[in-house]
Amino acid sequence: MYLHLVSISMFSYIFISSVNLLMASNNDTFSLANFAIFTASVTFAATSVFATFVACVFVIVAATFSLQLQLLHHR
């Protein structure tokens, strides 16, 4: 039960971080890399396999979305 709550809080924090990343993604590839490293370490800390999978999906979605925004800004 406690570990389930921890994984849920980790997931919500990752979700909020990815939303903030999408909001602030103008040119921050460095912060994107830091965000990916942070979420990888956090998901290794989370014990639930499902929470880890969902967090990885959110990282991939946020990364691709922000990269697309950067490509749009460069045009």
Our count of helices gives: 3
* CA-atom Rg in angstroms: 13 Å
As a percent range, the share of helical residues equals over 70%
- Helix and strand string, N-terminal first? HHH
Transmembrane segments: 6-23, 35-65
Keywords: Membrane, Transmembrane, Transmembrane helix
Task: State the gist of this model.
By secondary structure, the protein is mainly alpha-helical.
What are the key terms here?
0% strand
Describe, in plain words, how this protein is organized in 3D.
- The chain crosses the membrane at residues 6-23, 35-65.
- Keywords: Membrane, Transmembrane, Transmembrane helix.
- With 75 residues, the protein is mostly helical.
- It has a domain at 49-75.
- It contains 3 helices and no strands.
- It has helices at 2-23, 29-45, 49-74.
- Helix 1 runs parallel beside helix 3 (49-74) and helix 2 runs antiparallel to helix 3 (49-74).
- The longest helix has 26 residues, at 49-74.
- The protein is elongated, with a radius of gyration of 13 Å.
- It starts with a helix and ends with a helix.
